[in-house]
Amino acid sequence: MAFISSGYNPDKPMENRITDIGPRKYDEFYPEVIKKNKGKWSHHEILEPGVLVHVAESGDEIYTVRVGGARLMSTTHINEICEIADKHCDGHLRFTTRNNIEFMVDSKDKVEPLKNDLKSRKFAGGSFKFPIGGTGAGVTNIVHTQGWIHCHTPATDASGTVKATMDELFADFQDQRLPAQLRVSMACCLNMCGAVHCSDIAILGYHRKPPMIDHEYLDKLCEIPLAVSACPTAAIKPAKVTLEDGTEVKSVDVKNERCMFCGNCYTMCPSLPLADTEGDGIVLMAGGKVSNRISDPKFSKVVVAFLPNEMPRWPSMTDAIHKMVNAYSNGANKYERLGDWADRIGWEKFFEVCELDFTHHLIDDFRQQAYMSWRQSTQFKF
Amino acid sequence: MATVEMNGTSFEVDEDGFLLDYKSFTNDWVEYVRQQEGIDELNDEHWKVVNVLQDYYEKNGIAPMVRVLSKLTKYKLKHIYELFPSGPGKGACKMAGLPKPTGCV
């Protein structure tokens, strides 16, 4: 395509350069009712899954319809979201911290037409464009990462696993039958971008093979001390290597029995790639939360050590998640998050009711604090 | 990998325009990066940053942290940005022939 200039002059890059202006201020985009009643809300109610009403001290009401979003979306899709907002909400809308979309209207009689419009929209393949839900004690959107769409360190895909999981849990997105809200998150490597370390159920990409070392290019492309210090288990040490043509180059040596395949060294050094078709897969974690409602925030714990990448629908992953959600909804008391429930019944019972295998991989062996995760008590159930 | 040419010398570079091999650095490379980065004229201050980066890299095998670079050159970060509009990583390290910065950048 022919080049079309925006007015930027590459010969004088610093001329007319605007910088440090920050984001637009949020209140420029407030709907009228929000602007008028900011800081003066009296109470709110969930009318049905996906529909909320907030009542202000003045008596003003705002109805919010929350719909799921795929997070990764085209401008065509965003234009359609804008078209809906123009039609029903005076051009206003917002995105939530879990990447759902919220349309807000100021009176009750505007809710039904908006809902009917949203429900009527589907992609050619049949998926709902704007499924209503994600409120209360259900499953809302999955916080996820880039995967094979864009990142260079993933061990699994993000959008694919998330679509497969959300299809499995779709009934719970549109319902509020669970004991408490269930947050599912996904990260495609253990950098854990997002919320996997603090979610009720977490999907995590995982490698099982040590990095390959490209001796020829390593010293040219990498700052060797950074690769050495990137390793949490000190499996990497600097080394001199003789190449096939006889030249001696600086490189690194990886002690494979100390390597736990975190991939940090690849992040720092492009000559240490470790992605592998059969080796890579998924770890499931469970029991984390961020709120301090009743119990303190918790980290999620590893409950399934490895599941293979099964593109494009990841059946064994969705099956394990399904088993956990089922056991949780049957077993937990009202208001109990998944982690609270597992702590109450004991993790040995958690594995029993979820029908998950307990393997030696789940026993913490990382440094001193691993000791604290072992059972120093005679309190256990057979 | 792409090859670029400056004053008759050719350099192997990656897709971001970083030199593939530190050892192939010459003054022609500095001239090439100067044009790429939109720097009008190289002065002593540019050269001081480049020299400090190269000395540090040869001695330690890594690029210095920004605070270390500031301390060694006595230039505040703001001034480094005035010298190299793309910043110490994409601008100065590229000009000095150092490897491309890695990590979550």
UniProtKB/TrEMBL annotation, chain A:
InterPro entries: 4Fe4S_Fe-S-bd (IPR017896), 4Fe4S_Fe_S_CS (IPR017900), DsrB (IPR011808), NiRdtase/SiRdtase_haem-b_fer (IPR005117), Nit/Sulf_reduc_fer-like_dom_sf (IPR036136), NO2/SO3_Rdtase_4Fe4S_dom (IPR006067), NO2/SO3_Rdtase_4Fe4S_prot (IPR045169), NO2/SO3_Rdtase_4Fe4S_sf (IPR045854)
GO molecular function: 4 iron, 4 sulfur cluster binding; dissimilatory sulfite reductase (NADH) activity; electron transfer activity; heme binding; metal ion binding; sulfite reductase (ferredoxin) activity; sulfite reductase activity
GO BP terms: sulfate assimilation
Pfam annotation, one family: NIR_SIR_ferr
Cofactor(s) recorded in Swiss-Prot or TrEMBL: [4Fe-4S] cluster; siroheme
GO cellular component terms, semicolon-separated: sulfite reductase complex (NADPH)
Residue ranges occupied by any 4Fe-4S ferredoxin-type domain in the UniProt entry: 250-279
Keywords associated with the record: 4Fe-4S, Iron, Iron-sulfur, Metal-binding, Oxidoreductase
Protein name as it appears in the record: Dissimilatory sulfite reductase beta subunit
Organism: Desulfocicer vacuolatum DSM 3385
From TrEMBL, chain B:
UniProt keyword annotation of Cytoplasm present: yes
Catalytic residues as annotated in Swiss-Prot or TrEMBL: 104
Alphabetically ordered keywords of this record: Cytoplasm
Protein localization: Cytoplasm
Main location: cytoplasm
Family annotation (Pfam families): DsrC
GO BP annotations listed: tRNA wobble position uridine thiolation
GO molecular function: sulfur carrier activity
Protein name as it appears in the record: tRNA 2-thiouridine synthesizing protein E
Naturally occurring in which organism (per UniProt): Desulfocicer vacuolatum DSM 3385
